Amino acid sequence: MSSTPSAPTSRGAHDPGPVPGQPPGAPPPRTRTRLGRLVPRAALFAVLAVGTSGCTSNAFTRLGWPEPITKQGQVALTLWQGSWVAAWAVGAVVWGLTVWAIIFHRKSRASGGAPPQQVRYNLPIEMLYTVVPFIMIGVLFFFTARDENYIDKLSARPNVTVNVTGYQWSWQFQYPGYKVPGSPTGDVTINGEPWTPQTGNSQLPLLVIPENRTIRFNLVSTDVVHAFWIAAFEFKRDLIPGHPNHFEVTPTHTGTFIGRCSELCGLYHSRMLFRVRIVTPAQFSQWIHTQQALQTRSGGAQ
Ligand SMILES: [Cu+2]
To answer: How far is the CA of 265 from the centre of ligand 1 (A)?
Structure first.
């Protein structure tokens, strides 16, 4: 804002006139030089901002998601990344057209302020902006439906089945493929306790599963709605009283993780945690045989 009422509003007052050696009406060379300096500086700033933001390149491309530890999680992550790529591509086209219209179709002085030519009822343009969004929705729908079908697929013969029971405020894991004669449930069964400030994670129920095997989870609840969630699975599914749910994963990484209930289920919902250990198939066989022996001796899970 100028504080001088008589400040020149156009180039007229201080216009130095045509530059020697330049045709009259050509833009002054200073503008191009400044732009020429700004573009590389902006590019350098963008590279530095990304490079020094503290994210590893891998975390940056996952756009906030944890590293997936299952085949199904990898598919979900790829869909998430693809959706962002599509959104940025559409955004770039829309912003590009907007800027183009602002610059190249701005009101010129020569028109004397008259409104530009009006193009209502332009059938090709109206068809274009009706059909193109439908195509975009169709593409997103296709990839979402394809990946959802893959993630929801149940195999005829999973390698390991785990029956998960959720209750206020912990979990029970049963392995119906591994029997324990004389125990109340008849199967290898893992119980635990909710998290407390005194015990921390040490008493949480422990879910052990092998990597590179199909694992079927059968989910039931004995009281209210809970939800089974392991963040690195990139997946959660509800446990609904009277409505058994199922899903399968194929773990691809070994490691120890924390599972959570992700449906507000009462006072101690936030303490309804469990431990997850993904091990090699050999370690899993060893662990399950140890559990069978222990639980047969003691008459069931402790
Ligand atoms: Cu819960």
So the answer is: 4
Tell me, what's the pLDDT at 183? 86
Buried b (16+ CB within 10 A) or exposed e, 102-139: eeeeeeeeeeeeeeeeeeeeeeeeeeeeeeeeeeeeee
The per-residue pLDDT of the chain, averaged, comes to 85
What are the structure tokens assigned to 253, written together? 């990484």
Whole-structure pTM value: 0.76
Range with lowest mean pLDDT among 19-23, 34-38, 181-185, 234-238:
19-23
Looking at the predicted structure, is the pLDDT value of residue 74 above 60?
Answer: yes
270 Cα–ligand 1 center, Å: 8
Q: What is the dihedral of CA 132, 136, 138, 143, to 10 degrees?
A: 160
CA of 260 to the centre of ligand 1 (A): 8
Distance 222 CA to ligand 1 centre (A): 11
How much distance in Å is there from the Cα of 138 to the middle of ligand 1?
36
